[in-house]
Amino acid sequence: MAVASNDAWGKPLDGWRLRLYTIIFEADTRAGRLFDQWLIAIILASVTVVVLDSVHGINARLGTVFDILEWGFTLVFTVEYVARLLCVRHPLRYALSFYGVIDLLALLPTYLALLVPEVHALIDVRVLRLLRVFRVFKLTAYMSEYQSLGRALQASRRKIMVFLAAVLMIVLVMGTLMYVVEGPANGFTSIPIAVYWAVTTMTTVGFGDITPKTDLGRLIASVMMLLGWGTLAVPTGIVTAEMTGQRGRETVTTRTCHECLTEGHAPEANYCLHCGARLPDYQRTTT
Q1: What are 249-272's pLDDT values in tens digits?
Q2: How far apart are CA 171 and CA 58, in angstroms?
């Protein structure tokens, strides 16, 4: 059942726009899943072309082929971007959203390369091509695992912030202590340098550019290493606990609100969990 819109600016929720919207934004339908699968394949292929094109030897042999493929990918993404703007109720709202900006960044470099002056004006026009790697971020819109991880990170953000604050206090105290114990003679020329050493030691990276020379300094370094083993597991445990807790919650789908484009609503939901707008009835019966 289609839901009509009374908003003069918003697009209607019926006709071809509704069908196109269902294919592009709803992955719970057969057509939506097929669209997502093809789009993922094209995104991966385009990123592969960008990576291979950066290799001088391969580019020397297949540069023309890569240029043709790049324009083909750009045209496909352009059609997809225009289709998204046509089927959503509020095109500007989508264009300014996270994925809308990512979609635009996937298109602009190829077109901007046509407007950029010759190599005399820039060191290398091909630097613009690096922005095409933004296409890989489009994958997160089509993978439920990414979305599950994102929800777990969002739910645990306060705990992680508290953990990071505690880590910062530890490295500040230990770095200051090492500055006092070792001093400039052993490479600890300032507290920021000593804090840098504490961070690399606590994260078990240990570049070795600054090392303690005194017995007390080595004892402090040993304590920092042991602390590092324990602290590294804390954020992993926090996020894992949140992801485990999500398993018992109600099943969510890719049902998307036409107003704010928030997805992940439960199958039986009638209203958007974010903005409160009523969800179209057709979404509850689509299979």
Answers
A1: 555 566 778 777 777 677 777 888
A2: 46
